[in-house]
Design goal:
single chain, Thrombin, subunit H, 2 helices, Phage head closure protein
């Protein structure tokens, strides 16, 4: 009998990066996708962490969620009020045959401002 995957380590709010190019200089914002997704944390091996640190990338977490193909490197996960940028999203089939998505999360170069709901509905193309 196959065991259903459980996602009980935590949850995150999903945001997508959006660049406002209307003004003289582009501004990047986060737009709430109105999704809360539960996850299961998986380990990041020391070798992977070391190799990515050598490239100037700090891995903050690696997590597994039910398969969701709309997550990519233009997304940010906010976990306990902290922004984690999606570095990589791998869509896999787990050992029991269930489709899942593995996310490698990194520390963003800077905190990105969250666009408020009123402004995002009026201007952003994916709200």
């Amino acid at each position: 009998m196959k065991e259903l995957p459980s996602y009980t380590d935590g949850r995150f709010a999903l945001y997508r990066k959006w660049t406002d190019e209307i003004h003289d200089f582009p501004m990047e914002y986060l737009v709430n996708q109105n999704m809360i997704i539960w996850y299961s944390e998986i380990s990041v091996f020391d070798r992977v962490k070391y190799e990515m640190q050598q490239a100037g990338i700090e891995v903050t977490m690696k997590i597994r969620i039910p398969r969701y193909k709309k997550i990519d490197s233009k997304c940010v996960c906010i976990i306990d009020g902290i922004q984690h940028e999606v570095y990589n999203a791998a869509h896999i089939i787990n050992k029991n045959g269930f489709p899942e998505t593995e996310l490698t999360l990194i520390r963003p170069e800077r905190q990105i401002e969250v666009l408020d709901n009123d402004k995002s509905r009026a201007e952003c193309p994916f709200t």
